[in-house]
Write a structure and sequence with these properties.
single chain, 7-stranded mixed sheet, 3 domains, globular, Transcription Regulator spoIIAA
Length: about 400
């Protein structure tokens, strides 16, 4: 892959002692405020070489001139040329980790998980024959064509869709002519794509849906829910397009209620149920949709009882300053859910807030459950799915806890 600034002298950076220490321990980010010296202004997308205080090579990474997160590290240790062969090796290493993880009846999974797969600020998801590439930094935009070609050829996909985080959409369209939902390769799409997960069929709105179109990271938790659902009534709060609900239905649930504020998401859940009417138990499960704010509905409808309650809200803390408020919200949510839980029932509480560490979240749920005065057993806690590795603290966002009362 050609360098965006190939005619310029290599961008060289010297960073603070604290940043140098973090980098040596494996942290993949260098913030602009940690850069103490650089030989020239950097261009977004070029490679920046980082040296220590003794002018020894430390690392090389992608430079982003428009972000407080200035460098996303690609390689550390001994100097190495970052060429097309290196990128191909990084892709192969990530794919090898995923070998054997998915049976034939699953064709939706994460191929690349950002920094934890040495592709910082980039994720690549597969939905059958459609790949979805999501970028979280503009540093990838100058080299988009060669990486797109690499992904399509190696993964033998018929389509590649580009998704962009909100913070880079303006620069993407103005400087690079790239837009969110753009199809980089393959035929046009008029709607969602359909894929298989554990033998269930789901829609993924890859053009404009949340994340890359679906929440692939909850796959294992959905399987656990299926194993708890036989003969039970289920409330799926913050249900999105009903993936937990479908697993519960296949597990033998008598009735499932999807609760979400979004009419669009609930309509997607209805379509997903229709896609799976031939599945064992799904056609026999009563499926209801309720469009409402989950907090409001839980507070006003405590007379509605369920044998299994699933709480999978969006992130309550998108930055550190929101952490305290998020912790209070989780506690309140669990307390409200307890009022709806029948004797002998199960509570599944999830969090995708990276700023709330797993043990803190688990303790919030345990404490709120204990305050109800009901005895309970903790069945399990879970973290990231195997195709969503997390190799540094900020990457650990997903956690779930399963309780039985």
């Amino acid at each position: 892959m050609n360098e965006p600034a190939e005619r310029l002298a290599r961008l060289r950076l010297r960073i603070s002692a604290a940043a140098e220490s973090r980098l040596r321990t494996g942290h993949p980010w260098i913030y602009a405020q940690s850069i103490q010296r650089q030989n020239r202004p950097g261009q977004t997308g070029e490679l920046a070489v980082v040296f220590d205080r003794h002018d020894r090579f430390l690392a090389v990474g992608l430079f982003d001139s428009g972000s407080a997160l200035a460098v996303r590290v690609l390689h550390r240790g001994k100097p190495r040329e970052i060429d097309s062969g290196w990128w191909a090796e990084r892709l192969e290493a990530a794919l090898e980790i995923r070998q054997g993880l998915f049976p034939a009846h699953t064709n939706g999974w994460r191929c690349l998980n950002g920094e934890s797969d040495c592709w910082p600020g980039l994720v690549l998801d597969r939905y059958d024959q459609t790949l979805v590439l999501k970028l979280y930094t503009a540093a990838w935009l100058p080299r988009l064509d060669p990486i797109a070609e690499l992904f399509v050829q190696r993964l033998a996909a018929e389509r590649l869709v580009l998704r962009l985080s909100r913070n880079i959409q303006k620069v993407a369209i103005e400087q690079f002519g790239r837009s969110d939902g753009q199809i980089l390769f393959g035929p046009a799409l008029e709607g969602p794509v359909t894929f298989l997960e554990s033998g269930l069929r789901f829609e993924a709105d890859v053009l404009c849906g949340q994340k890359t179109g679906f929440f692939l990271d909850q796959r294992e938790n959905r399987r656990h829910v299926q194993g708890l659902a036989a003969g039970r009534t289920v409330l799926n709060a913050f249900s999105f397009t009903g993936a937990f609900s479908l697993y519960a239905a296949r597990g033998g649930a008598r009735a499932v209620t999807d609760l979400d504020l979004s009419a669009h998401a609930l309509a997607g859940a209805e379509r997903n149920f229709l896609l799976n009417q031939d599945q064992p138990n799904v056609g026999d499960c009563q499926h209801e949709s309720v469009q409402a704010d989950a907090f409001d509905w839980l507070a006003k409808n405590s007379h509605c009882k369920f044998d299994l309650v699933i709480l999978d809200p969006p992130s309550f803390a998108k930055k550190e300053s929101e952490r305290a408020g998020a912790c209070r919200a989780y506690g309140r949510l669990v307390a409200q859910a307890m009022a709806h839980l029948a004797a002998g029932g199960f509570l599944v509480a999830c969090s995708c807030s990276a700023h709330v560490p797993p043990e803190e979240f688990f303790e919030i749920v345990r404490r709120s459950a204990a305050q109800s005065g009901r005895r309970f057993e903790e069945l399990r806690t879970t973290g990231h799915a195997p195709d969503h590795p997390a190799t540094f603290p900020e990457a650990h966002y997903l956690k779930a806890i399963f309780l039985q009362f």
